[in-house]
Structure formats: C-alpha cells, structure tokens
Amino acid sequence: MIEPENPVTEKDMRDNKFLPTELTIAGLDTADGPEHPCYDGDSNKESVDNGMVQFMVRYGWFGSVVVTTIGATRFVLAGRRRVRALREANEIRVGAGLDPIRCEVDHRRASGASRDADLFAIVLAENELRRKTRSPMAMVRQVVRMLNFGSTLKDISLAMGVTENGVRRWVKVSELAPVVQTAVDAGRITVDAAVLLHGKPVEEQAAILDTLLAQKTATVAAEKAEKVEKAAEKQPPVADRRAQIVAKRKSRKPREEGKPARPPRVSRQDAAGALGKVVKRSGKTLRKLLALPTCALTEREKQVALWAIGDLTDEAIGFFKKAE
What we know:
Layout: H1 10-14, E1 17-18, H2 41-45, H3 50-59, E2 65-70, E3 73-78, H4 80-95, E4 103-107, H5 115-127, H6 136-148, H7 153-160, H8 164-174, H9 178-185, H10 191-195, H11 202-234, H12 238-250, H13 268-291, H14 299-323
Parallel strand pairs: 2-4
Antiparallel strand pairs: 1-4, 2-3
Helix pairs in contact: 3-4, 5-6, 5-7, 6-8, 7-8, 13-14
C-alpha cells in the first residue's frame, strides 16, 4: 500500500526540492509505454503551456508534484505539465544569468504486489479527473490498464470517482467487438446501448449495430421532418401573408382631424443639397461672431478657428455635391 507520509530515502527527508531535470516523466524521458505504472501518454502529447512558463520565469515555482522512486529513478506521478513548464522556464532563466528554480515534491512509496496498481491509481486520479472531455473508450482503456496492474473494481471506482457498477459497464465495453467500440468512441451510440450487446457473438453485434444506427438515422430524419412541418404550420403561405398585410392596412384608423400629416418623403439628393446650404450658412454665421469686438478669442485663436471653419465647410460642401 502507499505510505504518503514516509520519504523514500533519508536524503529525501532532508531535501524535498529538486531540479525538474532530476525528475523523470515516463514515456517522455524514457521509452516506457502503457505497461509502466507511471506512464500517461495523453499528458505527454499535450503542448507546454507558455503562459505557465512565463509565470514561473518571473514568480518561480508553485504547488508541489507527486513522485515515486523506482530503483534510482524519481518518476513523476502527478504534475507533469508543471515539471515540463519549469524545465523551459529554467532554460530562460539560465540564459538570462539567473539561478534555476527547484520544484517541491511530495514522495509516495508503494511496495508489495499492489505497487504498480497503487502508483497508477494516483496517475489516474490526478490526470483523468482533470480531463472532463475524455471519450468513453479512453476511460475504458484506462480501466483495462488498472485491471492489468491487479486493481480491484473498488480500487478503480475510488481512483476514477465512479461507482463499481459504472466500472463494470466500462469492462463490458472493453470486451465488445472493435466495430462497436469504434461507434462508441465516435459518439454514434451511447455506452448504455453498447452494453446491451455484451455477451452476443461478434457477427451478431455488428448486425445489431447496423440496425441501431439505421433506426437512429430514421429517427433523426423523422424528427427533422416534424420540426419543418411544425414551422410551416406556424408560417402561412406567401399569398396569405400578403393578404394579411393588405387587410391590416385597410383596418387602420383614419387620421384624426387636426393631426399633421406625415411629411412627404425627401430624396437623398434634395436632403444633401439642403444640408449643404445649412453648413455653408453656419460657416458665415461663425465668421461674423468671430469678427465681433466682444469675442474673447485672441487673434491667433480666431485665425485657427477660421481655418477650421473653412476646412469643415469645404469638406461638407464637397461631400454633399458628390451626393447630389
């Protein structure tokens, strides 16, 4: 069993801070694969978070990583992303003449027949629970790995945060035909539907799958046709809509006596010409105001204002002439 409070060695008891290069990530720093209890292939495929790297360059390390020692090697169980980020951050710091940063570790020691199962349970709990969008078949493959390491259904349920019945369902899916597992992984059928095929011959599973997919396609098409039909019922034909518009116009109340009629529509050209005249007159008025002896502006300020008025008037008149 795991002994979380006991250090691996006397040296680890005295010093629990190490350089990230002194820690080993299975499958990334070694050639290990799924047979290694500390291996997490999906985590190794993730790119390093550049934002985390820049944060560590400036502020240093945060949190701790969980490691275990197998032989003379310290393997990372949880915290791979931070270790990889700190490696890159230290390269930047050393290049800038700064000291490298050490990361704080939390040692876990496992021994006996359940060593591999206990170590992989930590890997699974740390990484699988963080990934909320994992596909069902990815979870099934991890369950199979735990079973191969000797874990019980209870151990797997504790590590993955599900019931033992949920684990049993994943085990059944792992025993289905590959074509059914592919359909589950692609989301074409649910895990519950796939479990119903468990125990049937492989050929029969494929035939039932084809029937289920055909029924699903027909159901989706029927639901779509029903939605289109309901939408058509709510929306009358074009001729009927036009008749409704005409009837609505005829049913309007006559304009009350004394109420001004709606002004006639003005063309764009007429509106442009009228606005051009307004701008020109406004410029003349402003010039007259600036010429008054009571104007508080200095001669320099008056000259600048006249230039601005002239530019504005010329631009406005030019614009409206184009509009005409």
